[in-house]
Amino acid sequence: MAVEQSGSGVPIVFLHAFPLARAMWLPQAPIARNFRVMSIDLPGFGESPAGPATMKMEETARGVLRTLDERGITQPAIFVGLSMGGYILLQILRLSPQRVRAAVLTSTRSGVDSSETKEKRAENIALVESKGVAALADKMIPALLGETTRQAHPEIADNVRAMITAQPASAVSAALRGMAERADTTPVLAGVACPALVVAGEEDTLIKAAEMEEMAKKIPKGEFQLIEKAGHLLSLEAPERFNDVFLHFLKRRVL
Ligand code: MLT
Predict the structure, then answer these.
(1) Is the distance from the beta carbon of residue 108 to the nearest atom of ligand 1 less than 6 Å?
(2) Distance 45 CA to ligand 1 centre (A)
(3) What pLDDT sits at residue 98?
(4) Structural domain of residue 225, as residue ranges?
(5) Among 46, 74, 96, 230, which is least packed by CB within 10 angstroms?
(6) At residue 139, what are phi and psi to the nearest 5 degrees?
(7) Which residue, judged by its Cα, is nearest atom 9 of ligand 1?
(8) Beta 36-40 vs 3-6: how paired, if at all?
């Protein structure tokens, strides 16, 4: 998997959302002043070569750990996963909890897809295959970004649309298949031994803040933070607040 690295010190690994790429973490670049920041393109996204036709979350989690091994990161790292990145982080916590020094679960859930969501994913595969990724971008942007961002920052919507449109249809379909068949990681939460921060956007309509607050309660060292006036992609909608919340958590609970 393609990795972008900057800075030095304790490693922080960023796992991106669907259907984006590691470029979504550009607003987190200032964090590299004090840490070794690594953002990974998941299979087929960004600069990573295509993976299998179904991007299974468990297999992808193993791939992320192998990618870190290849770069000599065998010590526990701080992981940040947003939405699909969070599904993968939850699998890393299940498979290799010793690799995780702290977990930041952003705009994500441990539960499986509802049957309605599974149907939507099948529709989206058909849409991408018939009309291309740009059609999916137009359909998804209202759900990916909060209302405040859509009204006050059209340039963020343009940036997200460009990022989505640059992703190959094969990767987008593979991820949709993989997410639809992902396993329930809720039983993992009670066994998470490291500090965990669960971050939700007040205006997220895809995964509601209240659901994430419940998830945080199931993690023994879990805490919950709400980012106001931001939606699902809160790290790029409200980067300063997200970076602040994250760095304060690291200072208080991890370092
Ligand atoms: C994401 O942002 O990664 C997606 O919304 C996740 C999903 O579709 O379940």
Answers:
(1) no
(2) 14
(3) 98
(4) 3-253
(5) 74
(6) -70, -40
(7) 84
(8) antiparallel
